[in-house]
Amino acid sequence: MILAVHTDDIKRRWIGWRNRLLASPRFQRFAARFPLTRPIAHRRARTLFDLVAGFTYSQILAACIETGLLDLLAQGPRDAGAVAERLDLPLAGAERLLRGAAALRLVEPLGTGWVLGSNGAALLGNRGIGEMIAHHHLLYADLADPVALLRRGGGGGALSAHWRYAEAAGQGSAADVASYSALMAASQPLIAAQAIDAYPFARHRRVLDVGGGEGAFLRAVAARVPDVALGLFDLPAVVARARARFEEAGLSARTTLVGGDFLSDPLPEGYDLVTLIRVLHDHDDASAILLLQRIHGALAAGGRLLIVEPMAETPGSEPAGDGYFGLYLLAMGSGRPRSAAVIRQMLDTAGFRRSRIVRTAMPLTARAIVADR
Ligand SMILES: C[S@@+](CC[C@H](N)C(=O)[O-])C[C@H]1O[C@@H](n2cnc3c(N)ncnc32)[C@H](O)[C@@H]1O
């Protein structure tokens, strides 16, 4: 205890000294000119500038997606005139967008025309990201006054109207759920591939996906693990959409779909694996613990729960967890990103015997925890 206080004291003094130095205009001038510190000073200035200007980068990206610029250049090189005509922009507007997008490596100049850039190509490889960006105008509107959003405790804006279940648990008409369910289904391949690569689903006979949306995750599991029986639980209006998808995929005979509110209706029993994919972080602590307790109660003896979602305090991806998802969920009106340690503590409280982190390929978008009943 005494040692901890002493270490904190040393750390506090070091941070104070460092911050005084970094804030000093004299030191900043020196660091930018001195050959040994110049590269560091430039890197820090760039990081700081990105913090200041990040919202303009996001809006350039939004314009690329909304106008279909990336799809157009994926078809082949175009000159600025052709881009302007296809995007229905004045030539000067098209050139401004192309130059901004080039600075972000979304596009790049080639000869007298333009082609897809490295970031643009990677984005097109993940269709779900494009769908996420396309709905960001809702979050952007809610974040126009971030302090007001923080003061009112979140919700009450455009994003919470989109994700209606967040503020009106268990509700949602067919029209309400259509756009968010489609968005979730489009972004699911990113997550499903990681979860299925990381966890041995073949050791289970019956898998229940709670909050399973339109069933994109279960269909990905079915494609890799031929013999497993599939169950999906979600709000009734979402289940109606899922039913059509399973029919189209020829998987109806293998699948049991149940509609209800997972915080109050009975959860289906007899499954040896329950999955919660991008669900827990949507809910405030009391609901999240209740959901875990209810899953614990519904699982067969010896069964497991697999949680997959982006998490807070993920080493190397901190801004994604506490930055992006922290504000996203605040605007949505419920939930919070949690660290793996906090989720494991909640699993413990809910009665699970033990839990462990399962390593995934891209922890920025998906971390996984498995818990034994
Ligand atoms: C963020 S989406 C995730 C969907 C899917 N697991 C995925 O990763 O694509 C959360 C899902 O939980 C469902 N959900 C939210 N609240 C619910 C409740 N109280 N009862 C049942 N399902 C609920 C939503 O309808 C939605 O399909």
From TrEMBL:
GO molecular function, one term: O-methyltransferase activity
UniProt keyword list: Methyltransferase, S-adenosyl-L-methionine, Transferase
Keyword S-adenosyl-L-methionine included in the entry's annotation: yes
Keyword S-adenosyl-L-methionine tagged: yes
Active site, renumbered: 281 (proton acceptor)
One Pfam family this sequence matches: Methyltransf_2
O-methyltransferase C-terminal domain boundaries: 171-353
InterPro entries hit by this protein: COMT-like, COMT_C, COMT_dimerisation, SAM-dependent_MTases_sf, WH-like_DNA-bd_sf, WH_DNA-bd_sf
Domain O-methyltransferase dimerisation stretches: 50-108
PROSITE patterns the UniProt entry points to: SAM_OMT_II
GO biological process: methylation
PANTHER family: O-METHYLTRANSFERASE CICE, PUTATIVE (AFU_ORTHOLOGUE AFUA_4G14580)-RELATED
Protein name in the entry: Methyltransferase
Annotated source species: Sphingomonas ginsenosidivorax
